[in-house]
Specification:
Radius of gyration: 27 Å
Largest sheet: 3 strands, mixed
Number of domains: 3
Shape: rod-shaped
Distance between the termini: 64 Å
Oligomer: single chain
């Protein structure tokens, strides 16, 4: 049975050529069909929400995502999309929105180290003098859509290098 590209190649000739040309058309048609099938798969794998199961591991490797043992393909795709959308930022609202996209509600409190002329008596002291910026992310109503370790790894990967983040789950 002729493949679709073999028929297209045959229609390009002005005459009906037979013999060795038939086998050449068949071989070239099969190769063009294989390339077409590969490109259809590749076009689905370009986007994180439609990626095939065989390519999910590549996205997870590049985005440094470690899937849990019982994760479904849809859950893994969701993490990939979240990872691709998470380009980084330094505002509190960026991280709150990122967590909201994962289905979690959070508030961020910024802590400041004690500084002479700025700090007040009774202000809580931060014990690590080499870290100037510290945040505490408090999750209000943790849904558990995604594991705590995945959330913490993602936040620590995206946060500015000079910032320490702690997590509180309620």
């Amino acid at each position: 049975m002729a493949n679709k590209h073999e028929d297209a190649l045959r229609k390009l000739y002005p005459l009906n050529i037979e013999g060795v040309f038939d086998s050449d058309n068949e071989i070239e048609g099969k190769h063009l069909d294989a390339v077409n099938d590969f490109l259809e798969t590749l076009s689905a794998d370009i986007f994180g929400d439609t990626v095939a199961e065989t390519s999910v591991q590549d996205f997870e490797r590049v985005l440094a995502i470690t899937p849990s043992a019982g994760d479904t393909l849809e859950t893994r795709r969701g993490r990939i999309v979240a990872g691709l959308r998470a380009l980084g930022g330094q505002t509190k609202q960026y991280y709150i929105d990122l967590l909201a996209a994962l289905g979690e509600t959070a508030a961020i409190n910024e802590h400041q180290p004690f500084r002479v002329g700025v700090g007040r008596v009774g202000q809580r002291l931060f014990q690590q003098p080499d870290i100037v910026f510290a945040w505490n992310i408090t999750f209000t109503g943790w849904t558990g859509n995604i594991s705590q370790s995945v959330v913490e790894d993602m936040i620590n990967m995206l946060k500015p290098a000079h910032t320490m983040v702690s997590f509180t789950y309620s």
